[in-house]
Amino acid sequence: MNPWELSAFILLLCMIPCFLVCIRGDAMCRLVALEAANAMTVIILLLLAEAYQRVPFVDLSLTLALLAFGGALVFARFFERWL
Amino acid sequence: MNPANILICALLALGLLSFLLTALGILFIPDFYKKIHFLAPGSLIGAVAIPAAVVVHEGLSQAGVKAILIAILLVFANPVSSHATARAGRIRRKGQWQPAPNEQIPVAPEENAE
Prior knowledge:
Chain A is mainly alpha-helical.
């Protein structure tokens, strides 16, 4: 197990609190936990692409970073009044 | 173990610690506005340290440049989405973003110049 895989595993454990808040909190707390989990997932994908030496998979991480940003903004906009 | 490996492990440990702080803050801080503050260490320190470790390992190859792009993207996205989330929470609770006419907004006391 190289350091990249180990880091990805520890980061995966860090997502468990986000999951717990996502299933128990009120609506806005869930949105915050979702944003934290998005950032962690971006880094996990980067670490796994590095661990298995698959350079094209870094694109997945880059795409998720862009889409998660847009998704968080759209969620925040709709949580203002309509959800 | 050469110096590059030590640097990589140190950067990875720094990033993991900041993400751990994010996770603990999200789990244990009850207030929504205070919870938003704990998005910052993971998305600022962690999202710079771990791509920096990738850049140290790979050099400025294709993966390295993309890691730099990811770091820039996360660092700029975090303040924007934090502000949007806090604004959405306030509008959801109070009905509007602007303060109500007789609402007292607590401000920090000004520090004395001396």
